[in-house]
Design brief:
- The chain is of the alpha/beta class.
- The protein contains 18 helices and 13 strands.
- An eleven-stranded mixed β-sheet has the order 2-1-13-12-11-3-10-9-4-8-7. Strands 5-6 form a two-stranded antiparallel sheet.
- A hairpin with a 2-residue loop joins β5 and β6.
- It starts with about 55 loop residues before the first helix and ends with a helix.
Length: about 500
Amino acid sequence: MSAHAQPKKKTRGIWTLPGLSAFAPPVELAVEVEESTEEPTEVTPWSRPGSRLRVKTSAAARGLYAPAHIGAPTSTRQAEVLNTAVIGAPTGTRGVVIARDVLSRTSIAHDPVTGYNSTPRLVSSPNVVVMGDVGSGKSSLTKTAYVLRPLLLAKRRAVVFDKKDQNGEGEYSNVVRHFGSEPIRFTTDGTGTRLNLLDETISRGSGVQGQMRLLNVVARLAREGNALNEWEEEALRAALLRTIAQAEDGRTPVLADVLPNLSRVADLDAYEGLSPTAIDELHQAGLSVRFTLNSLLQDYSGLLDGETSEEVDLKGKLTSFDISQLPEDGPAVPAVMAIGHMWLLGRLRGDRGWATNCVYEEAWHIATGPTAELARSGQKLSRGLALSNIFAFHKGFDVPAGSPGMAMIQEAQTVHVYRQSRPEDAAWCQRTFSFAPETAQQIERLADGHHFFKYASHPETLVQHIRSPWEKALTDTDEAFQAAASAG
């Protein structure tokens, strides 16, 4: 033993006196210290001693202290459940409360717009996907977390494409009236609202190119998705340009003004010098598109055959495009969604300073077929327009793999997955949203109101959507909402 390692002797002094020995501090034990030449090794949890034993049972009996037990080593993962700091809320407190974490019972707060504007950004895209079976609770979440609660924030508003029929009108109708507006109602009998495909709001920021894309999409919808060929596209473009040039006295042209010009495409000076065969091909193409659009106007009279109605505006905090009375089959629903989508983008370009949540109920109407490319291009513009698109689906197989609609789903940074009863639908969600493998079977058995929530690259969290009594009355039935409103 080296000289400097010799233990020091301590005198007990006054603590040796009678009566004071009971209060004496513990005696420092002599410890022999040996110099080691070995390299330091990693300290593992299971090699450490447990807590020091307290063996004075007589003192413990008097309540001074109790014997300690040797602790058992454990992994960090196992110990998380014992540490409230580790199992705290998976999200911060910014945004709006949307659910409750099933494990920690803490509130889940999230808002795509707030998350996008945070520093650093919590999400790189403000768009949202909500997916689940009918009756699983996704509509209640959409109404509360993405319509009602965000409206309490400054400079926030919501637009809804309301597809679900409830007592002869859309399910959001009374909610819209509660905020002081009337739903924008679309019908096929001439009693509803009109949308003009050539509305100047649609061309704001996108010009003639945006109007041409929209006309092309509507024509394809009228043909059950079949695309126009290159001759037909050229004839439609030429007719549109002539129609815009002919507009007089500041009147906005309408779709009916395009029809006669589709019959006169071949006489334009731009095609001088074409062979007689080419001129005839172009003429026939114009007639083909004219017949398609003419049938569309006749089948949906009062919907697309005039200037946009005055009530189509973002006057209040909540705007509803009530498409619940349009036929499920045919081009009416996707056409109104496409026109309304383009109109909204143009409107937002001229009305900066607000953040807008746009909810697409039964979003497969806009995420499949010819409208999908329009919707995806609009999704890319959402960041610059402070627009958060919320797409509600029943199941993922509604959207074809590899389509623009699938790209929309995959690019969304906020995901809510409710119950999917069919194993193949649950497995689709697990794969598409990169959930843990074991969640597939859990998704099949989720109770109403429970769902997996995920944002950005954070792991999914099992949460329960909680509503206040007023919100329950509001999101369940019209009659209950009216009773709740009168009681308040």
